[in-house]
Please model this.
Amino acid sequence: MESLPQIPSNPVGFWRRLGANLLDGIIIGVPLSLISYLITGDWQKDEPFTNALSFLYSLLIPVLWSGYTIGKRIAGIRIAKMNGEKVGVGTMLLRLLVASLVYVITLGIGLIVSAIMVGVRQDKRSIHDFIAGTYVTSDKP
Model:
């Protein structure tokens, strides 16, 4: 007998996820850009440095902080694995790199589809959640 797919507990929709990402951009992205500018003295030259630090933040902080980033912590949401295990570096690489590749290859259409999926699916999972085996929840770890 085939079992039904597991529906995650307390899945989080589009607006809370977007709010958490905006908070991360303001709290982490803006200061990183300013610090990079102060170091390089040029807004154009600081871009690779800022992008690398932003990537490391997005990759490592959820691993070290039980699926939270600063923005997600403020919003009361976190990334969780469907199987209940802790989010690891491999999971986050799938969420960030492989999903980004899909979004680039589809010329952004995949990103739009992901936003719609989060808005209309009962489990609120996007393309990058399916790729990485994750979902976003308001559950405590």
